[in-house]
Amino acid sequence: MEPQVVKKKVRVHSLEPHDEELALVINYVKEVTVQHPDGQMEVQETPGSKGIVLGDLTPHDDPETVAAEIIQSSKLLHPSMIEDIGAIIVHLQERLLEEDSAGMEDYDRMAQMALHDQEQAEIADSIQAQQMAMLQQQIDSTLESLDSYIEMLYEDNVQEKVKGTYMILQLARNADNLETLIQDERLFSRLVGTLKESAKQSLDLSINIMYIFLCFSSFSEFHQMIVEHEVGSLTFKVLDYELKRFVAFQKELDSVKSADAETAKKEAKKTKLKIQLQDKLIHAALYFLLNLAEDISIEKKMRKKGIVGMMVQLIEKRSSEVALAALTFLKKLSIFKENKEEMKAAGIVEKSAKFFESSADALVLVTMRLFLNLSFDADMRQEMIQQNIVPKLVDALRKEPFRLVVLRLLYHLSTDDRCKSTFSYTEAPPMVRTVSSDILSLALKACMP
Predict the structure, then answer these.
(1) pTM over 0.85
(2) Can you tell me whether residue 419 is helix, strand or coil?
(3) Residues forming a β-bridge with 42
(4) Is 206:281 a contact under the CB 8 Å cutoff?
(5) Parallel, antiparallel, or unpaired: how do β-strands 4-17 and 41-53 relate?
(6) How far apart are the first and last CA of the chain?
(7) Could you read off the pLDDT of 179-199 as tens digits, one per residue?
(8) Rounded (10°) CA dihedral 187, 193, 197, 200
(9) Alpha-carbon distance 15 to 48, whole Å?
(10) Could you report the per-residue pLDDT of 327-342, keeping only the tens digit for each?
């Protein structure tokens, strides 16, 4: 007697963009439950995948709308997957932009390299005093001495803890050491415990530990260990505390103004140094969380903890490095409607419009891309017009790396009847014609044999 099929079920276990094609790949497992003649039940699993080609996708399409259409057309997909699919659509649209513009691709690569170099420079700068002390003592950081570095974290003396974390950080900055470091069961637990116990005592200590976590978060294979130790939740607490402490620092700066000139200058210098160190800590914490947010489920948890409001708060009165990290995070979050609504309520357009005047191209570019995502909302398009960004966008067309994103943003703004009149008072029409002609010429040349 042959086994009888009792039940068939298809379970989607992951979604991902196709490596080469403009397509969404659905990875699934086909589960067939069969009953054998002796009454025993067996579940047979067969993995499979299906591709949904998105040949008509353009960089101008609304990700949520496209995602909804895909779900409606496939029996494998459920409406609860709309956010995950939307994130993949955005990824594919960014790939389109890269393919359409070699200049933009080169610029992005240069910007990423610059950000990486900047990050490494900040790590070195934030621990400069410690590094000089180590060099003077002729102390080298080695894996063989890891146990002694961890033992330093148990000391009551905060400076010993700073020294221990500094030595561990030097090891963690070499990616080849990370696998060995993660195998020490005490390391993560002790770093988390030290940050909980002593974060408020020393900014240097907090900076060292957060940069160690940042080194690990750069590789997705270590994310599970990070999640198990609840480092993400702890980072939120650190950021919340530092935001409150920043308010205290501002009050310190205001209070010293009433002192005599010499004292005021001395105290103001001390407070500004604290703020600079705090910015380094926040910078590391933001990129650490950004790395973890590659997982959409973790990003959703961050939203519940108030990540949107925190990022909006961080773009005000902070260094350009912190602002860049916060805006990058906001750009990622802005692909989802509920996040856009929260940003709108927080006044994101008004608070971030100032960055169009920044001398840092990377900061201007990420602001443009954030505004592009926000421009799908009619109310925020109107806010952008009120902030007088159209002349700034038109002027930005003169810079080749900005052109593609600026054209898309101008196109979105021009679809609103309330915005069209603004264009007549700028050089937009002739500039757009010139730029569009240049792009068309390049496209035709690329097609020629």
Answers:
(1) no
(2) helix
(3) 34
(4) yes
(5) unpaired
(6) 66
(7) 999 998 899 999 999 999 887
(8) 70
(9) 12
(10) 999 999 998 989 999 9
